[in-house]
Amino acid sequence: MVAPIGRRGFVVKGAAGAAALSAGLWPLRPSHAAATMDFDEARHLLSRTTFGATPAEIRALEAQDYVATVDRLLASVRRDAITPPPGWLNEGPAELQRQVQAARAEAAEAKKKAGVDGKALQPERPLQEQGRELRSWWIDEMLVTDQPLTERMVLFWHNHFTSSLQKVRFPPSLFRQNALFRREALGNFATLLKEVARDPAMLIYLDGMRSVARQPNENFARELLELFTLGEGHYSEADIKAAARAFTGWTVDRQTGQFKIRDNEHDGGEKTFLGQTGRFDGDAIVAILLKHPRTAETIVEKLWREFVSLKPDPTEIKKLAAQFRANYELRPLMRSILLSAQFRDPANRGGLIKSPVELIVGTVHLLGLPVPEKTQLVRMMQGLGQMPFDPPNVKGWPGGETWISTYTLLLRQQFLRRIVEATTVASMEGAMMSSSKNRRIERREQLPMKSDEGTMQMAEPTAEPRPVEGRSLRSAGDEAKLGPTLSGVDSATLLRTLLPRAPIDTVDPSRAPGATVAAAMLDTAYQLK
What we know:
The strands form four sheets. A two-stranded antiparallel ribbon has the order 1-2. A two-stranded antiparallel ribbon has the order 3-4. It is globular, with a radius of gyration of 25 Å. It has a domain at 14-55 and 352-444 and 464-527. The protein is built from 24 helices and eight strands. The relative contact order is 0.13. The chain is 49% helix and 4% strand. The longest helix is centred in the first third of the chain and has 22 residues, at 93-114. It has helices at 14-22, 39-49, 55-61, 66-75, 93-114, 125-144, 148-160, 165-168, 171-183, 189-197, 200-205, 219-229, 237-246, 282-291, 293-307, 314-325, 330-339, 341-344, 356-367, 374-384, 406-421, 425-432, 491-498, 513-522, and strands at residues 250-252, 259-261, 271-273, 276-278, 370-371, 442-443, 449-451, 456-458. It is mostly helical. A hairpin with a 4-residue loop joins strand 7 and strand 8 (456-458).
């Protein structure tokens, strides 16, 4: 019998689980001892480092040397996006304010001409439009990037160093912060931490730009210690106050939106922080934090929970943290994590719950669906509890088992059921978004992964068959054309592609491919990675 997954109904039914395992679909042999990957281990590696791996992407890694594959994967991480930035990127705060004022004046004039209290143009409309474009831009990058591990890491740092568009209210700053996370996605954590301390979006979000010598603001200092580095219980209130004084005068130029230090607002006096005394500024505080053993442990623990399991191995964490603290290079750390026996242990497959972003972006990629307007995808993510650029609070999304509640599981199933019941490309669109006329439809190029000596790139698709007219995936049988990513794949392979472990409900791999895909997507195990 397969062990319980452990969250509100996520329990494998014994008979179905045992039947699938006995059929050899999810072998539990200790594959971490093998030099090369089988299909299931290749799937596991991609499920934790990409969005919705396709059969072709998995097969491209099958029988490949595991260590060499991990090295190629890490070496290929991008430092910049391939999606062109929004046109307003270089506009300053003053220009955005001018647009907001113009929109406000336009709304007032429209209301005056109408002579009634009708619904006027919202004063914040320019800000809202930029926010929508920013979110759509990032979702587009997730869908079209040839190196999805990059965006997985950007999403990780976005949830670690949180900032919210709702408070920052200046999209160019959030775009640049996102770009910073991409530059240092697997770069150097010390560099990233120093840059975050000077990041305009962070300074606005945690009120650093208001912190002056005569009245230090403790928000950034508190989160720097509690969330970004040491964790609770490893500092005192006096340490927070000292750190807050050290960062006074670090602000944002209101005209350009760039980082700026106002020396006349900085507290240059002596401070005692974590047992050390000196005339510390913000850089000195960061340097002290980087020498503290807990900083490395905090980051290793968080990466472990994101990529391996929700129960970090204390011994392994201590060992990895000691290595990481030497120079804070992230790529070697991630290499050690991905090569660890715990990561490769089959018992950890299917042990994590997909975030809303992973579920939605991964499903679109896996099925080769036409990409609808990105704003509709964002709304789905918001409904499932993860709105990009608007985390719930400074702690970010708690993730893990909190992704699933009775309500969100119902919404997840509704999202997937609409896709399963869709019959044509057009109706698949309708299943994924509310109907609207003159909708611009973009299709992501489906690019199966291939590997070579130094990088991991994507290969060109060969065909684009469409779902069968007039029938759902569930009922189309052998006639179902599943799209370029799943076309021509046998049912047993489709089942192993879609699910990381034995299905919770009975799924018969001898059924037609369309029915197998439908059943697998609606199985609760599809929510896992």
